[in-house]
Request: fold
Amino acid sequence: WALLPGLLPKALVFALVNFSAGVTICEGFRLEHGVPWSARRELAAHGVANGAAMLVGSPPIGASLSRSVVQKLAGAATPRAGLFVGLCGVLLLPRVAPMLAPAPKATLAAIVVAAVADGVVYPAFAIGALRERELEGLLVFCATAAGGLAVSPMAGLVGGTALELVIRGARRAL
Reply:
């Protein structure tokens, strides 16, 4: 219990980042394909999935923007693609992991970055969202980047999220 005060802020930031990844993917599908989604349902699904993960000793569960981008670039058109990738991971990872273990983590990270750079650095849905609310999006981006660079990534994330909530509240009040 003595470690809880130090872990709680980090856990909240992790949960926020984890949920934000899922929301980003959902919003991307909404903008590109008109797929409706609900933030409340998404949050509930994250809660249920992470509760189940906790019960079996699994790490936290969340969306993966890079995997989604790779699937999209590969031409995946249905949710079955995610099931196929998951099954491939379960079947192949135990056999491939020993071969990848000696590789430096930086090399593995470079492979992932190279595979998804175009979709992550210039995601069409993020650019579309920015066009929908140009000034607000730019302001939140600048606040997040400035806080992250000047203070810490956690400060940038919390500051950017707080500013987004203030902007949304002000927009609803008008």
Remarks:
- The helical segments are 4-33, 39-56, 65-73, 80-100, 105-121, 124-132, 134-150, 153-173.
- The CA atoms of residues 1 and 7 lie 10 Å apart.
- The mean pLDDT is 77.
- Residues 4-33 form the longest helix (30 residues).
